[in-house]
Here is the input.
Amino acid sequence: MKQDTPSVLKNEIDNIEVPQDKLDIAIQKALEKGKKQKIKTPKNKLPIYLSAAAILFFSVFIGSAFVFAPVGSMASKIPYLGAVFQSDEVSDVIMKELDKKGYKINSVSVSYIPTKEVEVNIMGNDQYFNAVKADVKKDVQQILQAKGYDSYNIKLTKYKELKNPSLTEQQQKDKQVITEAVSEEMAKKKYNFNTIEVDPFSKEVFVDLKGDISYYDDHKDLAKTAVREALGKVEHSDYKVNITNSTPIIIKKQDDIGSDITSKIGEGLLSKKEYKVTEVGYVEDPLTFNIKTSVNASDSSSRVLAQKIEKEVKQLTELKNVKEKLDGKAYKVVIYSKDGEKLN
Amino acid sequence: MSFYKKAKKQRDERAFEELLEKEKQQLYRIAFLYVKNETDALDVVQDAVYKAFINRDTLDKEEYFSTWITRILINTALNFLKSKKKIVLSNEIDRINNADNEGMEDRIDVLEAVKRLEEPYKTTIILRFYKDFTIKQIGETLECPEGTVKTHIHRAMQKLKHDLGKEYAK
Here is the structure.
């Protein structure tokens, strides 16, 4: 008997030749097109808010006065989570401080999974990066210390610019000529559109109609004809015409209190080692905050920890502005052990 | 765009690109198994990557990225074939006829046999033996019970063995 079929199959498939360059261009195009779109709001609820995207980021601007205010004095007056709630999110605090010092920072992001980490993405060349990284790291350390956050690693990365497949001169010219001709024609016919994109690589024109789906249905064929006409006039009839309607439907939740409060509970509990919290999530209806810790249910201290966390959350929800948001809505706090057992 | 959104977006996008980098070759190869030519395979990959990218928020956990994007790719490939069916059909018949004339048995290999499998057998075989999906994952992808998946695999293997002759049979 020869090799069995499955492993032969695997080898055979792996032997299919991949046109690397073309594949990279195709992917690049897909990503570029994707980046122009707004991210769709997931339809289903996210039961675990933090783990959903595996990463959670915080950023809001804040006066820096609070940054270095001693946490101790603060904490004595209001509960810990309350203080977090009233301050700005840590990544914004860091960004603002670094900005103020004149560093060229692209972004600051805070992630909790798989490790708790503050990532600072620095712009500029290698030389600049190497010159400032030690100082930036020190500054970030100071800010975290001032806030009493002790659970983060600090990671510094260099901003990488996406390389674009470059157009030849002829392609650039074609692109321009076609874009002008198409937009002229569309304007003449008084069709509403968002964008006109010309892709000289795949020889395609994308026209995104503006308006709702019924406008799109009524006008897509007309628009296609118009674009074809325009292409004919400039002798580029070989281009394929795509009429799209991607007017983003932005579903904005009006009063998603769960998410508001959860992000604060998240930052507060995840930023201090003493709470041993690994994930924070919420379910909208009935409003439930799910908090996962790294302790074993059998640990004698696990119940005490759960009580402490529960108390923090309770105190937070009794703050005036949080209370207003909740507007009398009942909620539950469920604290889990490492292996998912309820601790409270 | 607020700061928060910008930072999150950039981080997300980078993570997506890194994960994609590891998958791209396999994605292309699977697409090729369906559409059987380079141009269409590239189109399918491009379309699938775009769909995956704009829906990346629906992915629960990073470790599911591979299975998740493979599902998107296969659906894209199948839709592509559906939309092209009318045009492709006659070419396809030609191709098969020609292949017959040239003495198929001589040049047949596993790959050709897989390419000639019909749905859902092709998808089942690719997912099971190339992507190492579990029976359960295949069931979820094809939206059918696990028992049915097992039957599909069994039948597909029989077809393959039949096509490939005794040489490969266990």
Summary: Chain A touches chain B through 55 residues (CB under 8 Å). The domain at 257-336 of chain A is CATH 3.30.300 (GMP Synthetase; Chain A, domain 3). Chain A has a mean pLDDT of 76.
